[in-house]
Amino acid sequence: MNILLIEAILDRYVAQVQRRKKDWRPAEIEALLLKLREEVLDCLR
After folding, report:
1. Res 1: pLDDT
2. What's the rounded Cα separation, in Å, for the pair 27 and 32?
3. What is the Cα–Cα distance from 3 to 16, expressed in whole angstroms?
4. pTM (2 d.p.)
5. What is the pLDDT of residues 3-44, one digit of tens each?
6. SS3 sequence, the chain?
7. What is the pLDDT of residue 4?
8. What does the alpha-carbon distance between residue 24 and residue 44 come to, in Å, rounded to a whole number?
9. pLDDT at res. 21
10. Is the pLDDT of residue 2 over 90?
11. How many Å apart are CA 45 and CA 3, to the nearest integer?
12. How many other CB atoms are found less than 10 A from the CB of residue 10?
């Protein structure tokens, strides 16, 4: 379990969204959130 990595993961996702200055479709948001969820859960294991 590496909780300290969660902040870095969240920062990476925020930066990724900020770089892509576009209108997000619901399917794209869902895919991004699912990937984020998976990475955070991996840190908690």
Report:
1. 61
2. 9
3. 21
4. 0.78
5. 788 999 999 999 988 998 888 899 999 999 999 999 999 988
6. CCCHHHHHHHHHHHHHHHHCCCCCCHHHHHHHHHHHHHHHHHHHC
7. 83
8. 28
9. 81
10. no
11. 9
12. 13
Spatial CA neighbour of 13 closest among 24, 1, 45: 24
Residue at 25: amino acid letter: R
Please tell me the predicted confidence (pLDDT) of residue 22. 83
Measured CA to CA in angstroms, residue 15 lies from 1, 9, 23, 45 at distances of 24, 10, 15, 25
Distances (CA, A) of 13 to 1, 5: 20, 13
CA distances in angstroms from 37 to 21, 22, 40, 41, listed in the order given? 22, 22, 5, 6
Instruction: Report the alpha-carbon distance of residue 45 to residue 22 in Å, rounded.
Output: 34
